[in-house]
């Protein structure tokens, strides 16, 4: 029975960080000896002060940064051995400032661009755009420029632009600096229509949220890795770092 449970646990392992170290070009040690397992279905918050290494860590999840030593696995694939085009369908990052991520003339065009090069037929493309706009409650904004949206609406659009191109059952979404948009957190963590009833969000296997400070007790977090330095990481039910 114990072996069966262990096998199931390994089967549900989505992100594995193994003895990860990262040095910046100037020699600064950003991460040192980090070990972290994140499993399917988890909503995990990574908390820490500015400069603690949170953003550096998540950039190793999608290949933006290569570890100095150690390894990062997404599902069963080592990140360094996976094409970037494949990684973008498995791991998506929503920036702290969505204005750095959004650029299209309209909300609809933002989603359409994200679906580019995915070999959809015209009908499939139109259906996917419609589904995305509906699921993320963006349909009424489809012809508006993204830069006229509220901060929360922009972040919701940024999340939608990532989720629309995800592979079914294997998407991991990362929100950087989520205290910048309470509405986006509610959309991801606390919205029954999207999580309980909407198949669209059910295909997101995990969520990783970077938190700079305590923001809302309504954030549902099963485990929070706490960063206070290059090699300091622990899990807790809910901890605020000032």
TrEMBL record:
Major site of localization recorded for this protein: membrane
Record-linked Gene3D superfamilies: P-loop containing nucleotide triphosphate hydrolases
Keyword annotations from UniProtKB, A to Z: ATP-binding, Cell membrane, Membrane, Nucleotide-binding, Translocase, Transport
GO MF annotations in UniProt: ATP binding; ATP hydrolysis activity; ATPase-coupled transmembrane transporter activity
Membrane-related topology note: Peripheral membrane protein
InterPro entries found in the cross-reference section: ABC_transporter-like_ATP-bd, ABC_transporter-like_CS, ABC_transpr_CbiO/EcfA_su, ECF_ABC_transporter_ATP-bd, P-loop_NTPase
ABC transporter domain ranges (all copies): 15-239
Subcellular location: Cell membrane
Keyword Cell membrane: yes
Gene Ontology CC: ATP-binding cassette (ABC) transporter complex
Database matches in PANTHER family: ENERGY-COUPLING FACTOR TRANSPORTER ATP-BINDING PROTEIN ECFA2 (PTHR43553:SF27), HEAVY METAL TRANSPORTER (PTHR43553)
Designated name of the protein: ABC transporter domain-containing protein
Organism, scientific name: marine sediment metagenome
């Amino acid at each position: 029975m114990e072996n069966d449970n262990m096998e199931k646990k390994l089967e549900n392992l989505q992100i594995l960080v193994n003895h990860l170290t990262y040095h910046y070009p100037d020699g600064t040690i950003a991460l040192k000896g980090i070990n972290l397992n994140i499993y399917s279905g988890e909503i995990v918050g990574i908390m820490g002060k500015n400069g603690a290494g949170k953003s550096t860590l998540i950039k190793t999840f999608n290949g933006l940064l290569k570890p100095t030593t150690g390894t990062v696995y997404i599902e069963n694939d080592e990140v360094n051995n996976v094409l970037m085009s494949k990684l973008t369908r498995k791991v998506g990052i929503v920036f702290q400032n969505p204005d750095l991520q959004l650029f299209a003339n309209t909300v609809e065009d933002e989603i359409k661009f994200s679906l580019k090069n995915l070999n959809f037929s015209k009908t499939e493309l139109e259906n996917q755009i419609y589904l995305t706009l509906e699921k993320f409650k963006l349909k009424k904004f489809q012809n508006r420029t993204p830069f006229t949206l509220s901060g929360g609406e922009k972040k919701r659009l940024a999340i939608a632009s990532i989720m629309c191109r995800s592979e079914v059952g294997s998407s991991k979404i990362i929100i950087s600096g989520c205290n910048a948009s309470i509405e986006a957190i509610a959309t991801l963590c606390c919205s029954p229509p999207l999580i309980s009833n909407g198949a669209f969000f059910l295909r997101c296997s995990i969520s990783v949220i970077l938190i700079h400070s305590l923001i809302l007790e309504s954030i549902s977090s099963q485990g929070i890795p706490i960063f206070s330095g290059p090699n300091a990481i622990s899990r807790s039910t809910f901890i605020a770092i000032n």
